[in-house]
Design goal:
By secondary structure, the protein is α+β, with helices and mostly antiparallel strands. The protein has 2 helices and 6 strands, in the order H-E-E-E-H-E-E-E. It has a 6-stranded mixed beta sheet. The mean pLDDT is 89.
């Protein structure tokens, strides 16, 4: 199980690096207690609360309905967009936890 935890934290770091390369300020949660694994703030002022889901198989995994609810609720309170980051061997895909549409990290300055 510890190996699975390390796999997940490695993927969280990968997502954090990706978001930082887009110019975001990134905070990675310690442990897996909060609703969001990563909180990112872009230069545009846009905020994302990100739940990272990683898979070795290439088929994206989904957060549970309970976890999605917590992510949406905490994001509403902090005026952030709830985002699920699916990490597969092919890369990282960001999706809105509310609409399911694909999102791109914001790179424009305001």
């Amino acid at each position: 199980m510890a190996n699975q935890y390390k796999y997940g934290t490695d993927k969280e770091q990968k997502v954090a690096r990706s978001l930082r390369s887009s110019g975001a300020k990134v905070n990675v949660s310690k442990g897996s207690r909060g609703s969001a694994d990563i909180k990112a703030t872009f230069k545009t002022g846009t905020k994302w609360n990100v739940q990272v889901k990683a898979t070795r198989s290439g088929k994206p995994s989904q957060p549970s309905a309970h976890d999605l609810g917590r992510l949406k609720q905490s994001s509403t309170k902090s005026q952030a967009t709830p985002v699920v980051a699916n990490v597969t061997p092919g890369g990282i895909q960001y999706k809105s936890a509310r609409s399911g549409r694909t999102l791109k990290p914001s790179t424009k300055r305001n």
